[in-house]
Amino acid sequence: MLKKLNNMILILGGGDVASGVAAVLHRHGWQIVISELPEPLVVRRKVAFAEAVWEGEQEVEGILAVLTISDEEIKNILSAGKIAVVVDPDAQVAKRLGFEVIVDARMLKRFQPIPCQGKTPLIGLGPGFIAGENCLAAVETNRGENLGKILWQGSPEADTGVPAVVEGHGLERVLYSPVEGIMKAHVQIGDFVTKGQILAEVGGAAIVAPFDGLVRGMLRDGLSVGAHVKVGDIDPRTDPDLAIKISDKALITGQSVLQIIESLS
Fold this sequence. Notes:
Elements: E1 8-12, H1 16-27, E2 31-36, H2 52-55, E3 57-60, E4 63-68, H3 71-79, E5 83-87, H4 93-96, E6 101-104, E7 122-125, E8 137-139, E9 150-151, E10 174-176, E11 181-185, E12 192-193, E13 198-202, E14 205-208, E15 213-218, E16 224-225, E17 230-235, H5 248-264
Parallel strand pairs: 1-2, 1-6, 2-5, 4-5, 6-7, 7-8
Antiparallel strand pairs: 3-4, 8-9, 10-17, 11-13, 11-16, 12-15, 13-14, 15-17
Helix pairs in contact: 1-5
């Protein structure tokens, strides 16, 4: 059911999970504003609205997000049926515009208060949130039988630090920077690579493919990153759509957020 056009939701973060949530809510008629950092470090860039910070706009599965710099622009973008992205790490926009709900989708794995939240209900995604204490409700984001579980009391599962196993590959699917330095990619998202192939460099230190697979995500060139920061994502499956489609995890999380919001209206 479509909601009223002035029903706005603020999502903190524009990474792949946050963008999946944004897409689900947008498709159900909610107007979405995403607040992001000035230089977001996003790996799955093809499915992240945060890329609008760099490019001015970003389209994910037919939904267009546009970078905005004023409240008037936000209103115009929303009225045009698009998602508005603002560089606003402290979510100051929450002071100026009336939001039905704030969704903290930064995936920080710890609770970080939102100074401008006021009395707006907060939905927290993943570890760090305690439903009934620091947020209205929380959503489980760990893969497994509880993925997408809505919590009105208590906390989501703790961060395991280990990605889900896909065709026998788990932790090695994630590429980390070996040292601090400037990111330089040698491949593009969507490329198929072979084991041992140099995929990127950070500070001159090479990062190689741990197995044959698809480049599902890769940080932008030129970014300064610390040591042991996630810079890439390799998938052993051979479906190219995996690089450009919102993940099932993000969509399941989005459906749970939608269910919470609709229960409040």
